[in-house]
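Quick start: what a row looks like.
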Amino acid sequence: MKLSTLSGLNHGLAVLKSQLDAGGIMAALKYLNSRIEHRFTAIYKFQGPTQRAVFLYDKLGHSGNRFNAIATSESLGRFITAREPFGVTDSATDTFMKKHGHRSLVTSFYGLSLSQANTLPTGSLCHFDLKPQTLPSPVERDFMNRARSLLFIRLNGFGI
């Protein structure tokens, strides 16, 4: 990894920590969302057949969102594993989605698991949108991977 990339990642993590310290999880999600084109950034908790948004940031500022709780069978988050993130740019045309017969309100998605080391995921950190979006860049995916560790520590009190 280039020094300038590493420096940028460290700066981004310092800004994220500052946002987290000053404004909590929602401020951190707002910052994460500002780095990408996707409309939503969320932290979901897996609860049996449902995934519940513990925190949900909407770039358009709408509250009372229909994505506060979603059936796991309808969620793109169900494809995240403990070790592998999952992403799709357009669920309507994606071959993997067609193969699994998956239909979703969400068109584009990128998410990572939230879990303690070597355990099943208890939740996810994700970006998503109702329209096609490109996947985050490799640098942004690396940043999100590093950010989830910082967020997971703060989320401990939320049962994630």
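That is the whole record. The beta strands are 40-47, 50-58, 69-71, 86-88, 108-114, 123-129. The first strand starts at residue 40 and ends at 47.
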